[in-house]
Amino acid sequence: MLSIASTSSMSFAVRAPVGAVKMQMAAKDLPGVTGPFGFFDPLGFTNDLTTSELLLRRESELAHGRVAMVAALGFLVQEGFHPIFPEVNGPAINQLTQITHFGAGQSAFFVMSMAIGFAELARARKGWVNPDDLVEGGSRLQEGYSPGDLGFDPMGMKPTDAKELANMQAKEINNGRLAMIAVAGMVGQELATQQGIFGA
Asked: Is the terminal CB of the chain with fewer CB neighbours within 10 Å at N or C?
């Protein structure tokens, strides 16, 4: 079963070793390299990447993994429990379309879109270089920024011990990877069968 608890570690994923931004880093040095495969890149997606390109890809992987963990939970909960719009039914992939047909649903869709937009803007301002300051061949991430480290830890769950932190980072990235595969499977199943995850 997919572990959603790892989303609580979202503010402290991928803390690169000290000085990693200054030197060439390898993908096998990042958290997420675990058994049984160890470092697994059979298609060579990380071959010949600069450190800034590697960290940019890790930022993307973390962002997509976090969204997928929330989406996986949303699929499982939303289909059976949606008290705000009780008239909505059927598979989760069709529910957003149903909501936009209601007057209040259009307002909810607008609020949701604005919340996502502000969250993405805050993430970009935290870790990304201003587009006006980009230089050719330079990093798109700000110097000293660790991918995924948004400074968001309201429950104080970030470990202070380096080994525990690395362990939590590995759990988050691996659960995010699993969630991306799981959500792709859920979407594919619902598109093919037009039934909910549990056949509802």
From this structure: N
Measuring CA to CA, which residue among 169, 152, 198 is closest to residue 31?
Answer: 169
Alpha helices in the chain (DSSP H): 51-78, 92-99, 103-127, 162-193
Q: Are the beta carbons of 147 and 25 closer than 8 angstroms?
A: no
C-alpha span between 168 and 8 (Å, rounded) = 10
Residue 84 tokens read as: 């705000």
Blockwise average pLDDT, block size 10, the chain, 200 residues: 39 43 64 80 83 85 92 86 80 80 71 88 82 75 79 83 87 92 93 80
Res 2: pLDDT: 37
Q: Is the pTM of this model over 0.90?
A: no
Q: Are 4 and 72 in contact (CB under 8 A)?
A: yes
C-alpha 73, offset from chain centre: 13
Distance linking the first and last C-alpha atoms of the chain = 20
pLDDT at 55: 84
HEC per residue, 13-40: CCCCCCCCCCCCCCHHHCCCCECCCECC
Cα 195 from chain centre: 26
